[in-house]
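Much of our argument rests on the idea that a fold can be written as discrete symbols. Part of our work consisted of pairing the sequence of a single chain with a tokenised description of its backbone. We regard such an encoding as a compact summary of how the chain folds. The amino acid sequence and the backbone structure tokens for this protein are reproduced below.
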Amino acid sequence: MTFSSDPPSAAWELLLPAASAPARARGRTLQSALREAVRSGRLAAGTRLPSSRDLAGDLGVSRGLITEAYEQLTAEGYLRSGRGSGTWVGEAVRASAPGVRDLAPGPSPDIRADFVAGSPDLSLFPRSAWAAAQRGVLSELPHPALGYPDPRGLPRLRTALAELLARRRGVVTDPERIIVCSGVTQAVTLLAVVLHARGQSAIGVERPGSPQYEELFATAGPRAVRLPLDGEGLDMTALRASGVRTVVTTPSHHFPSGIAYSASRRVQLLDWARQMDGLVVEDDYDGDFRYDRAAVGALQGLDPDHVAYTGSVSKSLVPGLRLGWLVVPDALADEIVARKRYMDLGNPALDQAVLARFIERGDHDRHLRRCQRAYKERRDTLVAALDAYLPGTEVSGIAAGLHAIATLPGRCGPQDTLLARLTASGVAVRPLSHYGGDAAGDRVPLVLGYAHLAPARITEGVRLLARAAAG
């Protein structure tokens, strides 16, 4: 990894002035700046640091200064290291200044345990492999490729994605039917704009489900119609009665309930689309992560003419790359491409070329295998901790993805009281009702995100959760 080829980081920028300090004070200044980056949260707990050689090259200082800084901060507890495993920001660093929070991601300065779902482990991002791909692209990319890109996306990336999606998810496509987007949000927005222009005033979405669709569709034209789920997937009676001709679904691993659509419900959904000459939008947001068996193939593979398939690297790599894809039926492709052209003139060509090379060289598959092992361990840790500290908790949903549903025992009290105690204890978590889910009698279903947390932090977080739940 080198600073010049990695995405800009506020943490590394903080070190640049220190690297320019007078020679006699440079070592102390670098240590102080690195210590402050950890304290302030610019370097989050669990972040893997560059090697001493790479960081020294980035900052233009001697490797000895970086090695000494790493050793000193490791001795102080700010960092941790292991033979052959690199150097990491410590998991239990507490800022010494009054009012400064523990170094855990979360929406509040008082968060001690953050179970809010939605993020992968950003520290697992393969910086070295990504930087190598960047260097390779910059050395081989011809000058004309730096002009305005094809609004559909770089042909090289669309070719790589077509092979990847066919191999890993069973998607039936070719490069001409793939449109590179700035994530799933842009993909769904493009579809909504085009479908509204064709006369569709409403689009169905799942309940419970992501709360973003009402506002997203409000800017695109159609209104969102919430449709309930049962234990097998989308309620077909409600779907037929709604009158919509397009519905957005997460059939491989529903968010947030955690179910996978049953085989019969998948067939029923496709039958509905054919009868209505409608469209199923398949959001395959974390389909690569299944821990107990092979992942269920994409719904799109069963009927490419009635399913639009979308996904991104936001869960498999990091959200900050803002790279995703939309696979559309032939009948919609030209209109989607036209809207994409006038929306943003296409995604950055360099980033697309880097992702293409990253996929072609097998780095993407290697990274997914690493994440698969890490996230499985974290889910197992979560289940074990709930069993140990909150016996009677029911963990539901398939063993997949980045979150689980934990329905707490009735003794934990009513939801409002429980959530107030959790907030006061510094535990950030959202109930299923936040996403439109129903209560479970006197038991409270919580949506627990775990992928972004190290196993030790998961166990400690559950312990805090249990203590708060006990009153």
About this structure: The first strand starts at residue 79 and ends at 82.
